[in-house]
Write a structure and sequence with these properties.
The chain is an all-alpha fold. It is about 65% helix and about 0% strand. The radius of gyration is 24 Å and the shape is elongated.
Length: about 525
């Protein structure tokens, strides 16, 4: 897998000019490049292959190109009702955004056109009706209820047509899209995985099956189960940037950093190649960059991480992506700049960070979070309190705007800064209590945007309090959730040594050297990354 991805990344990088000059687009993509899909429709035979290509693009979340494909089909065969189903499906990016009013209107227009054409088969009419359950009644029902309604419609459809594997795959995706918030039992994920594992046995080259399995298992407790799909997906759809990136979700969960790096280098190269060909999805590279920088930092490849961050800093800003109200370039840069000094424990550098021009309100909290922690750990309490106040203001704004999920994330930032202020003010028990409460709700860290694990922060604080046994227990707890985190392993080695547990200390020191093979980072020396505040 590693050799395959490196070769692919290099080939994509060097082929960008040639492909761009040829002006190739999505219509040139073959099943060998985007995966194999069998989705018969009653449209003209000339659009059958383009339709299946459009569905394959949907399965790899290449929504921009999928929409173009389905719109082209509607022009080529004006009587193809399912082309409008495809347009409506392309407008809902099920796992990461809620369509706004304008998008919902466009989707409902497409659904109405599809219904008016009266598809020749009941199966096709059922597909169009199913997606209609999500877009219709948007003013009466909230997003979660509409997503659940769509999922139930897809469940009925998949049962009505048990031999339709596309229905089963899209039903599994709908379960992920309608997952209740904070579901610790992972009911929807496990149900989706049960559907998908059966499909994976008979459809090993289906892009959606492998892709959705990865999403189903994208939790620390489940990630091991996702390795077969992660090893397979990039080979199924090697032309799709998201397919090259997605395996890294599992690799990051398992601490397989070189695999993580290779996946995201390939994805970034593919994104830039297709952007040069005037194909959509340029903004996807920033998600891959988040994963890439995080993996570099966990390998002690600090200089490589800094090089990528500087490259992002020098890139042009993008316009709004997907109508979601943010610039992915700016959002990524905010997270990258905050993570670097905190991962390296350069507190004074973190305290000097400046807000990024054009950053969204919620993103600014990340900068003030890093500044606040850096200031508190440098002993500059006045500055720490100023940054805490900024975070509190942002939190109040988001609450007033009814942005619940984002407000919760910002409140976590607030509590972590407050914890380090307590510590710096000589009230360590209050700081420990705050971090312990946050650690109880950890969900794992995969990329830069996930920030620093609260459990590791708690362990750091306990180590500095010389409560070595407690520190070691928390480092070990976090390493179960976040395997092979460099700072966690270094901290565990130091805590074990301080606690007089020589065998454990030796074990973690060996892990650190293995993790840092070839690295020149000071963090790779046991004890060096857990200096006292201000150092």
């Amino acid at each position: 897998m590693k050799t395959f991805l490196i070769a692919l990344a290099l080939s994509l990088y060097f082929l960008i000019p040639a492909f761009a000059d040829q002006g190739q687009h999505h219509e040139d993509l073959t099943p060998q490049q985007v995966g194999t899909v069998h989705f018969p429709v009653s449209c003209s035979s000339e659009v059958q292959k383009p339709f299946e290509r459009g569905v394959a693009l949907l399965h790899s979340f290449w929504y921009e190109e999928a929409q173009k494909e389905f719109e082209g089909i509607s022009r080529q065969d004006p009587h193809c009702a399912m082309a409008y189903w495809g347009v409506a499906m392309s407008l809902w990016h099920q796992l990461w955004n809620h369509p706004d009013e304008s998008t919902i209107k466009n989707a409902n227009d497409a659904i109405s056109k599809g219904e008016a054409l009266k598809a020749r088969t009941q199966r096709e009419r059922d597909y169009i009706a199913a997606i209609g359950t999500f877009y219709r009644n948007s003013k009466q029902l909230d997003y979660e209820k509409r997503a659940t309604s769509y999922s139930k419609a897809m469940e009925r459809l998949s049962r009505r047509y048990p031999n339709d594997r596309e229905a089963a795959a899209f039903y599994a995706l709908s379960l992920l899209a309608s997952e209740p918030e904070h579901d610790k039992n992972y009911g929807n994920r496990k149900q989706a995985a049960a559907v998908l594992e059966k499909l994976f046995e008979v459809e090993p080259d289906h892009p959606g099956v492998a892709h959705y399995l990865i999403h189903s298992y994208d939790k620390p407790e489940l990630a091991e189960l996702g390795l077969p799909a992660a090893r397979r997906y990039a080979k199924i759809a090697p032309a799709a940037p998201h397919a090259l990136h997605m395996p890294s979700h599992i690799f990051a969960r398992r601490g397989l950093w070189q695999d993580d790096v290779d996946s995201n280098l390939a994805s970034i190269a593919a994104t830039r190649k297709t952007a040069a060909m005037h194909m959509g999805g340029e903004g996807h590279q920033f998600h891959a960059i988040d994963f890439l920088v995080y993996a570099y930092l966990q390998m002690g490849r600090d200089a490589d991480a800094r090089k990528v961050i500087d490259e992002v800093k020098n890139m042009s800003q993008m316009k709004d992506m997907y109508g979601m109200g943010y610039d992915p370039h700016v959002s990524s840069l905010v997270a990258l700049e905050a993570a670097y000094p905190l991962e390296l424990h350069r507190w004074a550098d973190a305290a000097k960070l400046q807000p990024i021009t054009g950053a969204a309100v919620g993103d600014n909290s990340i900068t003030y979070w890093a500044r606040g922690i850096g200031a508190a750990r440098s002993g500059d309490l006045a500055s720490a309190h100023q940054n805490l106040s900024k975070i509190e203001e942002i939190h109040q704004t988001l609450v007033a705007q009814n942005k619940k999920t984002l407000a919760e994330s910002v409140d976590k930032d607030r509590q972590e800064v407050q914890a380090w202020i307590h510590y710096a003010e000589g009230k360590p028990d209050e700081g420990v209590k705050l971090l312990r409460s946050l650690a109880e709700n950890e969900d794992g860290v995969s990329d830069v945007s996930d920030q620093i694990p609260a459990t590791e922060m708690l362990a750091d604080m306990l180590l500095e309090l010389k409560r070595s046994d407690e520190a070691l227990a928390n480092y070990e707890a976090d390493l179960k959730l976040n395997p092979n985190r460099l700072n966690g392993i270094a901290g565990a080695a130091q805590a074990a040594e301080m606690a007089g547990k020589a065998e454990k200390a030796s074990h973690y020191e060996a892990d650190l050297q293995r993790l840092c093979a070839g690295s020149q980072s000071e963090r790779c020396q046991p004890g060096s990354s857990h200096a006292a505040p201000g150092q």
